[in-house]
Amino acid sequence: MENIVSDRLIIRKFKENDWHDLYEYLCDEQVVKFEPYDTYSENQAKEESINRANIESFYAVCLKESGKLIGNLYLSKEDFNTFELGYVFNRKYQIKGYATESAKRLLDYAFSNLGARRIIAMCSSKNTRSWKLLERLQMRREGMLLQNIYFKTDSNGQPIWFDTYEYAILKSEWHKHYD
Ligand SMILES: CC(C)(COP(=O)(O)OP(=O)(O)OC[C@H]1O[C@@H](n2cnc3c(N)ncnc32)[C@H](O)[C@@H]1OP(=O)(O)O)[C@@H](O)C(=O)NCCC(=O)NCCS
Q1: Mean per-residue pLDDT, 133-154
Q2: pLDDT attached to residue 1
Q3: What is the DSSP string of 44-68?
Q4: pLDDT tier at 162 (50, 70, 90 boundaries)?
């Protein structure tokens, strides 16, 4: 993959030595609150950056000016030319428009270069920042699944159930919005 460049950002493949910037946000409880994993240790972040450098689905989002890795996008190919989008950003670099700017470019790339026909995303109904991002990308809310999943347990070991919003956008809808 060639780097994708936007006004303020570079979207590129992960490198094995990205672990320090990756650790900076994956060690943050607030950042992983709605993720299917707990906070990472330094060693786990080292292993994870090697893993991400060797698989297709993870994209590092970096500041154009400094090269600092500030978060990641995830885009994984499913059946029927459908791709699933995900995203996690360092708290210091949230609410600045970086997630929207990078996801918009990646979706455009997926529809134009990866053969995507439909892109979907799922998030907890409680993760307002996440579904607001999906709506800024013009994705449609297609459904809400009640208590369909849990990633974490409470202090008594009981599941913390999430209600999940499902979002999607078709290639035809994307071009209607953005061409
Ligand atoms: C989900 C997540 C990526 C959303 O990030 P975000 O910071 O809300 O999204 P953006 O980076 O696009 O920022 C948009 C906000 O920046 C504001 N903003 C500030 N400066 C801006 C600028 N120069 N340009 C554009 N927007 C700007 C926008 O107004 C918008 O604010 P609003 O939502 O209050 O209207 C982020 O909350 C996150 O990483 N969370 C933790 C991981 C997670 O939960 N992932 C999803 C699991 S389903």
Answers
A1: 96
A2: 82
A3: HHHHHHHHHHTSSSEEEEEETTT--
A4: very high
Residue at token pair 């885009």: 75
For ligand 1, mutation pick of 22, 76, 96 (most atoms within 8 Å of CB): 96
Domain count, the chain: 1
Under the banding of pLDDT at 50, 70 and 90, the label for residue 84 is very high
* Segments forming the whole domain that contains residue 23: 4-178
- The candidate with the shortest Cα–Cα distance to 21, out of 59, 89, 70, is 70
Asked if residue 164 lies in contact with residue 145, where contact means CB atoms within 8 angstroms, the answer is: yes
Cα gap 157→123, rounded to integer Å? 23
Q: How far is the CA of 96 from the centre of ligand 1 (A)?
A: 6
> Is residue 143 within 8 Å of 134, Cβ to Cβ?
no
Residues 129-139: tens digit of each pLDDT: 999 999 999 99
